[in-house]
Amino acid sequence: MSKIEIKNLDLYYDDLQALKNVNMSIAANRITAFIGPSGCGKSTLIKTLNRMNDLIPGCHITGSVTLDGEDIYGKDLDVNLLRKRVGMVFQKPNPFPMTIYDNIAYGPRTHGVHRKAMLDEIVEKSLQDAAIWGELKDRLLKSALGLSGGQQQRLCIARALAVQPEVLLMDEPTSALDPISTAKIEELALQLKEHYTLVMVTHNMQQALRVSDTTAFFLLGEVVEYSDTEKLFSMPVDKRTEDYITGRFG
Amino acid sequence: MRLKERVMRWVFAASASVCIAAVVLICVFLFANGIPFFKKYDLFAFLSGTTWSPDIYDTGKGVYGILPMIVGSIYVTAGALLIGGPIGILAGVYMARFAPKNLLKVLQPMMALMAGIPSVVYGFFGITNLVPMVREVFGGTGFSILTACLLLGIMILPTILQLTYSAVKAVPEYYFEGSLALGATEERSVFRAVMPAAKSGILAAVVLGIGRAIGETMAVVMVAGNQARMPKGLLKGVRTLTSNIVTEMGYAADMHREALIATGVVLFVFILLINLLFSILKRKGETA
Asked: What b/e sequence results for B115-137 when a residue is b if at least 16 CB atoms lie within 10 Å of its CB, and e otherwise?
């Protein structure tokens, strides 16, 4: 079952074309990985899925992106509601400069939840879902900035989960982390796909191979190859994919 | 090259020393001239006395109570902050986050200009515009606490605005993006995610605004009425610590003169406390 459908997508930064005719259907409850060298358009594409590209002046698209059949670039679409449904975890952990509790409660409060008991419940559940409740339950009222990088990133995942998204976008979520923290995030991603649709940009091909179900290989704004991860890594169809995954460039 | 470097190092060190020496000299002068007054006059009576009746005719019966001026300074400063604080902070946030580029190009030089206008010019503006306006709208003479608050509120705007602007500008973009990604509107993201991150900087802006307001002399003298009595209402005249010094220093002698210098000491201690608060806030902001 496809959750997100991308059709004939072209994206331009002013006159520069950053994505060329992208067609892709992203399956629900799967992890989809985007790989490719720097500047290939993989981060650009993930940001079109929750319209974070709107922030960049001069950025415009043609083609369509639909979420459950609804055009997310449609005129009547509430972009804030879209971002509630399509959560995002950033490359650099970015907890807000406030307590751990307030970080998690930020999203629910934004969407109108103010009852203390309800917030308490959401905070606990989100931290549990992000597999960090045990580590943090005794320091909920401490600043989130005192946590280690890996903890901060899992806190950010918990913060994203707290608004009950359907899709979770991860833009190189482990590139700033050590191997142990990375392993924890990967393990967490595998658990999360049971309830969420995950899209992950990664620089690390091993990571794509370890966690993803499907992989898209990008080059110069084009999707060169998009298939089951195992197939893409074992029997790439395109010569350029083969060159990249065997480390001949990139 | 090495010689040149060594010479320059001395030049830099000398410049820095001049600055430090100036501050130290002012402190020494102020306290050396102010302290002897307290040997002759009770400190408590000085600070809490409500009558200011200097011994101009040399009868030996001067009364020097500066409580009205302390209260006056506090009222005027608080009023200025009430007016200039919210406007300055909101305008600073607007300039840092929402203003279109073209508007910013106009606003920024205007703010710089506003900060550079001499206070006597502000005073003229107060006398010719604010005083009649207050007189017509609220009654009274127009020379009042309210007028002083309005004028000072305008005068501290550039300080608060510019510091708020830099504090908000310095907040990394990823707080804003993180908030947007949770489905918050841009306004909510700015007020709930970006501004808390700039909190200590904004507080520092307010504190510096207070310092500017409490130390302002010329403009206040021109519009506040300068009656040395306990302030009795927003529309009544008031005298601040600074205006007390500047209005009487010209003809004061002996005890009277020393009492004015002692007023300066009190003002100096106020400013010292405010600067202390400022540096504590700044340090807190750096470690947070």
From this structure: eeeebeebbebbbeebbeebbee
Is residue A8 a part of any domain in this protein?
no
Q: What angle do CA A59, A62, A68 make, to 5 degrees?
A: 105
Compute the distance between CA of residue A9 and CA of residue A63 in angstroms, rounded to an integer: 4
Is A117 contained in some domain?
Answer: yes
CA B187 from centre of chain: 30
Q: pTM of the prediction?
A: 0.84
CB-CB contact of B151 with B126 (8 Å): yes
Which residues of A fall below an 8 Å CB-CB distance to B?
50, 52, 55, 80-84, 87-88, 90, 92, 94-98, 106-107, 110-111, 143, 145, 156, 159-160, 163
- The CATH number given to whatever domain includes residue A101 is 3.40.50.300
Give the amino acid at B170. A
Among residues A220, A250, A225, A239, the alpha carbon closest in space to that of A20 is found at A220
Number of domains in chain A: 1
pLDDT at A57 exceeding the cut of 60: yes
Distances (CA, A) of B172 to A174, B195, B198: 20, 11, 10
3-state class (DSSP) for residue A93: coil
Q: Are strands A86-89 and A70-71 parallel, antiparallel or unpaired?
A: unpaired
Q: Is residue B288 over pLDDT 70?
A: no
The encoded tokens of residue B83 equal: 């007016």
pLDDT digit string, tens, across residues B73-127: 999 999 999 999 999 999 999 999 999 989 999 999 998 899 899 999 999 999 9
Q: Give the CA-trace dihedral at B145, B147, B151, B152, to 10 degrees.
A: 10
Separation of alpha carbons B85 and B164, rounded Å: 10
Q: Which member of A81, A90, A145 has the closest CB to residue B183?
A: A81
Predicted complex ipTM: 0.90
**Is residue A159 within 8 Å of A95, Cβ to Cβ?**
yes
> What tokens does B240 get?
């601040």
Q: For residues B149 and B143, what is the distance between their CA atoms, to the nearest angstrom?
A: 11
Q: Which residue segment(s) compose the domain that A233 sits in?
A: 28-43+73-245
CB-based contacts of B109: which residues, under 8 Å, 6+ apart?
none
Chain B positions touching A106 (Cβ under 8 A) are 179, 182, 184, 192-193
Chain Cα centroid distance, residue B177: 36
Query: How many C-beta atoms surround the C-beta of residue B251 within 10 A?
Result: 10
Contact A94 B174 (CB under 8 A): yes
Say yes or no: B179 contacts chain A, CB-CB below 8 A.
yes
> What digits encode the pLDDT tens for the residues A14-24?
888 999 999 99
- Let me know if residue A49 belongs to a domain: no
Query: Does residue B187 belong to the interface with chain A, where contact is any CB pair within 8 Å?
Result: no
Domain-embedded: residue A89: yes
Q: Report CB contact under 8 Å: A160, B185.
A: no
**Hey, is the C-beta of B86 within 8 angstroms of any chain A C-beta?**
no
Least Cα distance to B88 among B14, B155, B146, B138 occurs for: B155
